[in-house]
Amino acid sequence: MPQSTMICRRAHMRKISTLLMSLLAAISFTLVSSGTANAAASGILAQTVPGAGNCATPKGNSTANGTIITTWDCTGDPLQQWSIDNSGYIRHKKSGKCLTPSGNASGTNGAVLTLWTCTNDSSQRFVDGWDQIWTQYGGKCITNKGDNLGNGVYLTLWTCGSNPVPSSQRWGIF
User: Fold this and answer.
1) How far apart, in whole angstroms, are the C-alpha atoms of residue 171 and residue 57?
2) Calpha distance 24→29 (Å, rounded)
3) What is the pLDDT of residues 137-154, one digit of tens each?
4) Are residues 56 and 79 in the same domain?
5) Nearest alpha-carbon partner for 160 in 122, 124, 106, 117
6) Whose CA is closest to 144, among 86, 76, 68?
7) Does the pLDDT of residue 31 top 70, yes or no?
8) pLDDT, tens digit (0-9, with 9 covering 90-100), for 108-123
9) Are 18 and 71 contained in the same domain?
C-alpha cells in the first residue's frame, strides 16, 4: 500500500476517533444533566405500603408555622401536595412552607415534622430515596409515630430501618 494512502487513512481514522469521542462526551453530559434535572419531584407525599393509602397532611388543614404533619387518607386535595427540589427542600404546595423537624432536630429520634417558613437551615433538607425519605443532615427517616399506619398519626423522624424497610418508613413523593 502506498505511503500517501496510509497517511490519508490515519488522518481519516483520527477524525472519526475525535468525532466519536466528542459524541460520547455529549451523550455523557446529556445523561448527567438530565439525571440532575429529574432529581426534583412533585405530587403527593404518600406511604408506599400497599393498601395504606396515607398521605402527609397538615393537622387541621392548617398552613401556619408549627403545624404538625399527620397521616391521612389520600384525597388529592391541594393540602396533600408537596414537591422536593434539587437541594432537598420538601415544600408544601399550598403554603409554600417547608417540611421541618420541630426544633430543627434533623438528627433526633422522635422529632415531630411540622410546616415552617423555608429558611436556608440544613434541618429542612431531605433525600428522596428508594422507598424512604431521610434527612440530609442526621440521616433520620420520615416515620409514622409508633409505627401506626392509621389516620391522624404524627410524622416523626427515626433511625432508618432496612431489610426489610419498616412499613411506617415507606414514604415517597409521587
Assistant:
1) 13
2) 9
3) 999 999 999 999 999 999
4) yes
5) 106
6) 68
7) no
8) 999 999 999 999 999 9
9) no
